[in-house]
Automatic annotation (TrEMBL):
<protein>
    <recommendedName>
        <fullName>Ribonuclease T</fullName>
        <ecNumber>3.1.13.-</ecNumber>
    </recommendedName>
</protein>
<feature type="site" description="Important for substrate binding and specificity">
    <location>
        <position position="115"/>
    </location>
</feature>
<feature type="active site" description="Proton donor/acceptor">
    <location>
        <position position="172"/>
    </location>
</feature>
<feature type="binding site">
    <location>
        <position position="16"/>
    </location>
    <ligand>
        <name>Mg(2+) 2</name>
    </ligand>
</feature>
<dbReference type="InterPro" id="IPR012337">
    <property type="entry name" value="RNaseH-like_sf"/>
</dbReference>
<keyword id="KW-0479">Metal-binding</keyword>
<keyword id="KW-0819">tRNA processing</keyword>
<dbReference type="InterPro" id="IPR036397">
    <property type="entry name" value="RNaseH_sf"/>
</dbReference>
<keyword id="KW-0269">Exonuclease</keyword>
<feature type="binding site">
    <location>
        <position position="14"/>
    </location>
    <ligand>
        <name>Mg(2+) 1</name>
    </ligand>
</feature>
<keyword id="KW-0378">Hydrolase</keyword>
<dbReference type="InterPro" id="IPR005987">
    <property type="entry name" value="RNase_T"/>
</dbReference>
<keyword id="KW-0540">Nuclease</keyword>
<keyword id="KW-0460">Magnesium</keyword>
<feature type="domain" description="Exonuclease">
    <location>
        <begin position="9"/>
        <end position="194"/>
    </location>
</feature>
<feature type="site" description="Important for substrate binding and specificity">
    <location>
        <position position="20"/>
    </location>
</feature>
<dbReference type="Pfam" id="PF00929">
    <property type="entry name" value="RNase_T"/>
</dbReference>
Length: 208
């Protein structure tokens, strides 16, 4: 894994929020899925780590966003953590995965990845968190990769084009969207790996 991505471990992240403004709108859910690689160079998702997040003090909550996600931010049954505790929980799992893969840092994989990375970085700034395992600005975006590999940029359509199921009733949950994004990213990378192995078999090139 470290050789494949220059020392970075791809970790799929999806967030659900109270709007589109990372600086002022609440972070409400976060899910992260570190990826693993088998002996033949194929990627697969590892178990999902996720948590609900309490709105930070003064956070904006756009009713239109809450209607889409179906989140009630103040429902006590959510078991939400403060932003600091939520980041500690997610980051510890990511750091463990980075060490296990013998990588130096995590790199965020997301669908419209700049959105997820923006909310993550703003939460890090608000908390003054000093142990963020993610690269602060580089990321892999499955919008671009899905368009390249399957001619589809919408998550549901790209996932279906990759041969995986997608239930629109489950969408806009951080866990569900992260898991579908992980399937999509792995499908694209594994498709490329298949082509590498095909070329190696038919041309004698060493692409391992």
């Amino acid at each position: 894994m470290a050789e494949r991505f220059r020392g970075f471990l791809p970790v799929v992240v999806d967030v659900e929020t109270g709007g589109f403004d990372a600086q002022h709108d609440a972070l409400l859910e976060i899910a992260a899925i570190p990826l693993a690689m088998d002996s033949e160079g194929y990627l697969r998702p590892r178990p999902t780590v996720s948590t609900h997040v309490e709105p930070f003090p003064g956070a904006n909550l756009d009713p239109r966003s809450l209607e889409i996600t179906g989140i009630d931010p103040y429902n006590p049954l959510r078991g939400a953590l403060s932003e600091r505790l939520a980041l500690d929980f997610i980051f510890q799992a990511v750091r463990d995965a980075v060490r296990g893969a013998e990588c130096q840092r995590a790199i965020l994989v997301g669908h419209n990845a700049a959105f997820d990375l923006g909310f993550l970085n703003q939460a890090v700034r608000r908390c003054g968190h000093k142990r963020n395992p993610f690269h602060p600005f580089s990321c892999f975006d499955t919008v671009s990769l899905g368009g390249l590999a399957y001619g589809q940029t919408v998550l549901s359509k790209a996932v279906l084009a990759a041969g995986h199921p997608f239930d629109s009733r489950e969408a806009h949950s951080a866990v569900y969207d992260a898991e579908r994004t992980a399937e999509l990213f792995c499908s694209v990378v594994n498709r490329w790996r298949q082509m590498e192995l095909f070329e190696q078999t038919h041309s004698g090139l060493d692409v391992a």
